[in-house]
Amino acid sequence: MQYITSTCNNSRIETQTQRSPLQPPMKRTILTLAAAAATLFAGAALADAKTDSILLNLKVKYPATTFTGVRATPLQGIYEVQMGRNLAYVDESGRTFLFGSMYDMEARSDLTAARKTELGIQDAPAPQQQRAEAPPIKWSDLPMADAMVRVIGKGERKLALFSDPDCPFCRQLERELEKLDNVTIYTFLYPLASLHPGAPAKSENIWCAGEKARNKVWIDQMIGGKTPPAAKACATPLERNVALGDSLNVRGTPTMFTSDGRRISGAMPAARIDAWLNAGK
C-alpha cells in the first residue's frame, strides 16, 4: 500500500509542478495529502467490495451456515471467515476451506489466537489429550438405540457416524458412504447449532419421521438436497447425542468410529474409508 501511494503521490506532484512551477510549497503539500487520502479511500473501498462479494458468495453456496464476516489476511488470495464463534480461512471461490491457526513466524505470533481474542471468541476447554492421541472408544458403550441404522450389503463391518444435516462435509461423505459394501452404519444426529442454526430442527424432523422412514429422509436431505418435511413432535435423542459427542471428544462433523474404537474425522473418498475399516481386521 505504501508503494502504491508513494507512486501516485509522485505522479501528482510532477503534474502539478509542470502546470504551475510557482505554486507555494504549502499548496503542493495539501495536494499531495489529498492524493494520498484519495488513494487510501479507493483501496479501502476495493477491499470492502472484495470481502463483501466473498461473504455474499459463501452465503449463497452454504445457506445453512451462518457467516458473520470476511476479511483479508496476510496471505494473498486467502481470507478469514467468521462463522458464529468459529474462524476459518477460505479462498476467493469459497470452495476450499482451511481450519487451524495462522502464524507469523517472524513475529512468532499466533494470528488466529490474537484475532479470536479481539473478537471475544473463547475456544472450548482443551481435552486432556490431543486429538491425535485420543484413546479408542469402547464400542459397547455407544447407545445404538439413539442412532439411525443403515445396512449396506451383509453389514458385517461396523461404523458409527456423528453427522450434522447442514454440514457440507457431511454431505460429501454421505455420497462416499453409499459406495461402500458390507457395512452397517450407525448415524448419531449431531447438529452443531452454533454453525448451523437450522440443523437442530432438521435433525428433529428426520428422527421424528419414524424408524422406517428416517434413513430415506436423511439421504434425501444429504444427497438429494431435500429439506426434511415437518414431522409430528416426538422424543428425540439429540441432547443425549450432543452430550455423548462431548464425552468422546468429537470436535467437529463428520466424525466416524470403527467397532474396535478407532476414529477418523472429515470427508474422504470411499476407498480410504474402506481401507480404514479393513485396517482393524
UniProtKB/TrEMBL annotation:
<feature type="domain" description="Thioredoxin-like fold">
    <location>
        <begin position="152"/>
        <end position="277"/>
    </location>
</feature>
<comment type="similarity">
    <text>Belongs to the thioredoxin family. DsbC subfamily.</text>
</comment>
<dbReference type="InterPro" id="IPR009094">
    <property type="entry name" value="DiS-bond_isomerase_DsbC/G_N_sf"/>
</dbReference>
<dbReference type="InterPro" id="IPR018950">
    <property type="entry name" value="DiS-bond_isomerase_DsbC/G_N"/>
</dbReference>
<dbReference type="InterPro" id="IPR012336">
    <property type="entry name" value="Thioredoxin-like_fold"/>
</dbReference>
<dbReference type="Pfam" id="PF10411">
    <property type="entry name" value="DsbC_N"/>
</dbReference>
<keyword id="KW-0614">Plasmid</keyword>
<protein>
    <recommendedName>
        <fullName>Thiol:disulfide interchange protein</fullName>
    </recommendedName>
</protein>
<dbReference type="InterPro" id="IPR051470">
    <property type="entry name" value="Thiol:disulfide_interchange"/>
</dbReference>
<comment type="function">
    <text>Required for disulfide bond formation in some periplasmic proteins. Acts by transferring its disulfide bond to other proteins and is reduced in the process.</text>
</comment>
<dbReference type="Pfam" id="PF13098">
    <property type="entry name" value="Thioredoxin_2"/>
</dbReference>
<keyword id="KW-0732">Signal</keyword>
<feature type="domain" description="Disulphide bond isomerase DsbC/G N-terminal">
    <location>
        <begin position="46"/>
        <end position="113"/>
    </location>
</feature>
<keyword id="KW-0676">Redox-active center</keyword>
<dbReference type="GO" id="GO:0042597">
    <property type="term" value="C:periplasmic space"/>
</dbReference>
<feature type="signal peptide">
    <location>
        <begin position="1"/>
        <end position="47"/>
    </location>
</feature>
<dbReference type="InterPro" id="IPR036249">
    <property type="entry name" value="Thioredoxin-like_sf"/>
</dbReference>
<dbReference type="GO" id="GO:0016853">
    <property type="term" value="F:isomerase activity"/>
</dbReference>
<keyword id="KW-0574">Periplasm</keyword>
<keyword id="KW-1015">Disulfide bond</keyword>
<dbReference type="InterPro" id="IPR033954">
    <property type="entry name" value="DiS-bond_Isoase_DsbC/G"/>
</dbReference>
<keyword id="KW-0413">Isomerase</keyword>
